[in-house]
């Protein structure tokens, strides 16, 4: 291509701004840059520095059941009364959270829950495949492990475990029910407290969630994407295109993707869209080990009763879980991270024990009351698109969300039906 043609190509290239450099925004930016757009990725904190940094690293495609479940109603008082239990609600945040919880309870209705489950099934079904293709292209296949995961039970009641097992089978999840000897054969460092497990054979995990985010961002930069570390305070659309108001100078582009998770509400309010999103704060505690294969675990192990997960990572065992509703700006309560280590002692025979080097983290998951993300073209703004609200499944659904956004921007038919994910359900 001669210089004149190159210059003409640059003039006509469509520009896209992606607001939010978590795993969702990174995947959207990479897909659009690969499709020939000139993409600018923007984030106040940096690439992958939110929930994409300290999460459990679990590609949890088995999680197709919405969080709004009727059985929670009788459990909720007990769960909330324990300040270090798996669920906590800040007293100061309680009034603000009531509207969200009312919508959450409404989504417990069987018809709505079944509809939301089917939508999650469609989104999760091939989510790992989209990643394997992407990571192969980025020469980063070492960052994903396809060894499955375990959901372990300390309960002696096989009938209850069997019921949960049948629910997963009915949802089309590849799963095996294991007894104690079979479970310990897979993971010898599991405690004798474990009586049964569900072995999800088709799920995966990453040895380093932050490295995964940065690697995909670097892959996009290699294709020409640029990154700006700045806050975006407003987005507007006019006949001339999209204007982003930032902490620096305004940025004008042809298209915009809003993918800033729990921080998306203000930007969407400015566009006159209602977004009932909660900052569902999660904690993790990273325990250093001597090597990546230290014998502690070889795959993620989640506790059914204690509601947390342990994932083997690069020279680290990461404990993650708990749900805290306290808003975006409340100080972190790192006792909630520390308690994960106490719980791990019931799950593992040997727990890494180096208190001086362990690292506690807190991040705000973007949770919507129906457990579905928003993936759509803005109904009243044809050049603005939303990719946000992925709650516990941002890592899992990152690559497929990027693909779907690429299809929406280019006018292609999406790989799955996106009607359940449109923001119109809240407006």
Structure description:
Helix 2 packs parallel to helix 10 and helix 2 packs parallel to helix 13. It contains 13 helices and 21 strands. The protein folds into two domains: 3-52 and 211-276 and 371-426, FAD/NAD(P)-binding domain (3-Layer(bba) Sandwich); 63-112 and 134-203 and 277-367, 2-Layer Sandwich (D-Amino Acid Oxidase, Chain A, domain 2), CATH 3.30.9.10. It is globular and about 65 Å long. Strands 4, 6, 7, 8, 15, 16, 17, 18 and 19 form a nine-stranded mixed sheet that branches. Strands 10-2-1-14-21-20 form a six-stranded mixed sheet, with helices on one face. With 427 residues, it is an alpha/beta fold. 34% of the residues lie in helices and 25% in strands. GO terms for molecular function: oxidoreductase activity.
């Amino acid at each position: 291509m001669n210089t004149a043609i190159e210059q003409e190509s640059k003039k006509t290239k469509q520009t896209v701004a992606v607001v939010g450099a978590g795993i969702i925004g990174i995947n959207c930016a990479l897909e659009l840059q690969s499709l020939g757009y000139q993409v600018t990725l923007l984030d106040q904190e940096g690439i992958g520095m939110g929930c994409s940094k300290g999460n459990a690293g679990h590609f949890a495609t088995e999680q197709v059941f919405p969080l709004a479940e009727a059985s929670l109603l009788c459990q909720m008082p007990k769960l909330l009364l324990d300040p270090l239990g798996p669920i906590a609600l800040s007293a100061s945040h309680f009034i603000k959270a009531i509207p969200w919880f009312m919508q959450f309870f409404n989504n417990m209705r069987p018809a709505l829950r079944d509809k939301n489950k089917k939508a999650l099934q469609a989104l999760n079904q091939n989510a790992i495949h989209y990643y394997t293709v992407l990571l192969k292209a980025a020469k980063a296949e070492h960052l994903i492990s396809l060894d499955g995961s375990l959901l372990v039970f300390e309960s002696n009641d096989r009938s209850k475990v069997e019921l949960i097992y049948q629910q997963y089978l009915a949802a089309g999840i590849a799963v095996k029910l294991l007894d104690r000897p079979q479970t310990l054969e897979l993971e010898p460092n599991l405690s004798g407290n474990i009586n049964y497990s569900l072995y999800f054979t088709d799920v995966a995990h990453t040895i380093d969630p932050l490295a995964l985010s940065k690697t995909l961002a670097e892959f996009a930069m290699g294709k020409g994407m640029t990154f700006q570390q700045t806050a975006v305070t407003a987005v507007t659309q006019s006949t001339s295109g999209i204007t982003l108001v930032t902490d620096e100078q305004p940025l004008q582009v042809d298209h915009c993707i809003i993918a800033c998770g729990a921080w998306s509400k203000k930007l969407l309010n400015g566009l006159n869209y209602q977004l009932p999103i909660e900052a569902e704060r999660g904690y993790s505690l990273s325990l250093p080990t001597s090597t990546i294969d230290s014998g502690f675990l070889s795959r993620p192990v989640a506790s059914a009763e204690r509601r947390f997960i342990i994932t083997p990572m690069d020279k680290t065992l990461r404990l993650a879980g708990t749900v805290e509703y306290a808003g975006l700006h409340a100080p972190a309560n790192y006792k909630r991270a520390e308690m994960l280590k106490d719980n791990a002692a019931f799950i593992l025979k040997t727990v890494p024990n180096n208190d001086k080097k362990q690292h506690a983290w807190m991040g705000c998951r973007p949770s919507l009351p129906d457990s579905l993300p928003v993936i759509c073209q803005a109904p009243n703004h044809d050049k603005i698109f939303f990719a946000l609200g992925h709650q516990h499944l941002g890592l899992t659904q990152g690559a497929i969300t990027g693909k779907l956004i690429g299809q929406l921007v280019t006018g292609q038919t999406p790989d799955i039906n996106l009607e359940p994910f449109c923001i119109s359900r809240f407006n």
